[in-house]
Amino acid sequence: MPLYDPEKTWAEQNLPPEYQELAKKKHLPFPGRVGFGERPAILVIDMAKAWTDPSSPMGTDMTECVTNIRKILDVARMTKPKIPIYFSIMEYDPNLKGITEVHNRKRPT
Description:
- This protein is mostly helical.
- It is built from 5 helices and 2 strands.
- It is extended.
């Protein structure tokens, strides 16, 4: 299945059939098609080693996900002109000053 089918709406591509009609009536999220635009980019969100390495206290085995992201990035780097690639990151002070109480409860280690 292609990553994006311009002949189908978001609902048709992402929701089970029983929810598609409701999504169309409620316009969730948008029933129309827009395509890819003229200046595509790739955004990689929160793929830090802390979450993708099973040896990390907060990590899990995301080998398949990381491998697939790598394939996408390799293709983007080979295109002419190159497709811009952006990475979002979260960074903490070495003394963990930015960690909230909720985060500490979720992360017992």
